Amino acid sequence: MRLVMMGTGTFAAPTLEALLASPHQVVGLFTQPDRAVGQERGSTRQTGKGMKTIAAEKGIPVFQPESVNTPQGVADLKSLRPDLLVVAAYGQILSNDVLGVTPHGGINVHASLLPKYRGAAPIAWAIYHGEKQTGVTIIQMSVQLDAGGMIAQEAVEIGPQETAGELEARLAPMGAQMALQVIEQIAAGTARPLPQDKSQVTKAPKLKKEDGLIDWSRDADQVCNQVRAMQPWPTAYTFLHRANQPAMRLIVARATVMAPIAPGSGPGMILPDPSRLLVATGTGVVEVIEMQPAGKRRMPAIEFLRGRPIKDGDRFGPETP
Predict the structure, then answer these.
(1) Residue at which a domain ends, from 145, 169, 200
(2) Which of 32, 160, 187, 242 is most solvent-facing, going by the fewest CB within 10 Å?
């Protein structure tokens, strides 16, 4: 089959590489336009080796329209005469005009157990909400976001300390192999999409920097889930408040639950312990393992404490109390 790949970032890269190694012909790559370095964030903006680089090594034409749904985007796609679109973390919803270019429409490699977590950041939100299991679903493309019929689905367990970046690295190659299997089914005429249960739909919107701000009034498990979910971007963060000093912004890189009940301290209060950085939450205590002060390198929390011993009344919270 003549395939056009549409995708951006490290989640999509294994699918492109698998297609290139298959008997099928990849006739073009559509990927997001190049962005300024400071904008290349989030799971679909982690460039890794780079989709363009992978395509260039094989002499595959690359297209980077702001919107593939424009007349020019549709014309470029038609010029490739594809049989099927293969989409993974592309970041654009495809119109009927785009999907109608190919005889077989398109398939999407989506990193969740649909219908749960439709949207741009399914891996992060699954971890954020404390899911124990997620996976990959291959769906038939439709103009509604992640709403198409499910052709294949596989589940995996989420590790108790696994970050969004680590989980994405596991799911991406799994999704690539599933996509190959589905392409064979489509070519053979045996693909049988199943409808999604609309009553079970949940959303996974694109991450914003503000999603990383820790609310210490949540329980300890929820705080630690947020820390894992926000890695590698936008990262979980808080502000250290100390008497007669300006608030200090800190990235919380790793944390773990220490106790299910906090010992009478308000959320965000730092508990006295010279050897560990313990923080009270709405319910429970969190130990901050690794952190990164603004403008500094990532470091163990104990190293941070050596330079800034905790005093009574020190606490974490938003920049403006």
Answers:
(1) 200
(2) 160
Q: How far is the C-alpha of 140 from the C-alpha of 8, rounded, in Å?
A: 19
Q: Are 268 and 316 in contact (CB under 8 A)?
A: yes
Q: What is the pLDDT along the chain (321 residues), one digit of tens a residue?
A: 999 999 999 999 999 999 999 999 999 999 999 876 544 444 444 556 799 999 999 999 999 999 999 999 999 999 999 999 999 999 999 999 999 999 999 999 999 999 999 999 999 999 999 999 999 999 999 999 999 999 999 999 999 999 999 999 999 999 999 999 999 999 999 999 999 999 999 999 999 999 999 999 999 999 999 999 999 999 999 999 999 999 999 999 999 999 777 677 899 999 988 889 999 999 999 999 999 998 899 999 999 998 888 899 999 999 987
- Grouping H, G, I as helix, E, B as strand and the rest as coil, residue 184 is helix
**Which residue range forms the structural domain that includes residue 92?**
2-200
Q: Are residues 287 and 146 in the same domain?
A: no
Residues 194 and 257 in one domain: no
**Regarding beta strands 25-30 and 2-7, do their DSSP bridges make them parallel or antiparallel, or are they unpaired?**
parallel
* CATH number of the domain bearing residue 106: 3.40.50.170
| Same domain? 143 vs 260 | no
